[in-house]
Amino acid sequence: MARREAPEINAGSMADIAFLLLIFFLVTTTMDVDKGISRKLPPIIEDEQEKPPPIKEKNVFVVLLNSQDGLFVEDDYMDIEDLREAAKEFIDNFGKNPLSSDNPNKAVISLQNDRGTSYEMFIAVQNELTAAYNELRDEEAMRIHGVLYSELSKDDKKEIQKKYPMKISEAEPVSLGG
């Protein structure tokens, strides 16, 4: 009985096929892109740059977060549920309360946190402060144009933004204690 040899398979083009499959899968695969918060860091202050003009203390709304996620507004403890209304009252004061901001253009919210503050609490506070500005802009847009701020044209949005500029100063984290 004669033994037959197994026919050989030409493997010369296997590398080419594998390479083409790799390229195919790289091109057709989509990757999820994580989205973050749209915040810009303040520019680096150069020594020769002019210092900003002084701000009256009554025009600064001080918000502090400690390492135990305690929220202190103007040196008093506050629940996060009350922060939005307190911020709106401060921004939209127009001189009603002599201890609060003169007007929305002069109002500055100073947010300072401890290095031990949780990320969730920091974001929650930022959300409440941003929501305060958004609600004030919505109210002004409804008063003037009869529609919400988000539905306005670009020029009308700029008009409302001039009346209610979002001025939130995020100070460098420090250790505030408990």
Describe what this molecule looks like in 3D.
The protein is an alpha/beta fold and 178 residues long. The chain has a domain at 57-170. It is built from 4 helices and 5 strands; from the N terminus they run αβββαβααβ. Strands 3-2-1-4-5 form a 5-stranded mixed beta sheet, with helices on one face. The radius of gyration is 28 Å and the shape is elongated. The mean pLDDT is 82.
Q: What overall geometry do the principal axes of the alpha carbons give? A: elongated
Distance between the termini: 93 Å
Order of neighbouring strands in the sheet with most strands: 3-2-1-4-5
Taking all Cα atoms into account, the compactness measure Rg is 28 Å
Classify the beta-strand content into a percent band. 5-15%
Low-confidence stretches: none
Number of strands: 5
Order of helices and strands: HEEEHEHHE
What's the mean pLDDT score? 82
Helix/strand/pairing category: alpha/beta
Helix content: 25-40%
Q: Could you give a short account of the major beta sheet?
A: 5 strands, mixed
**What is the number of helical segments per DSSP (H or I, 4+ residues)?**
4
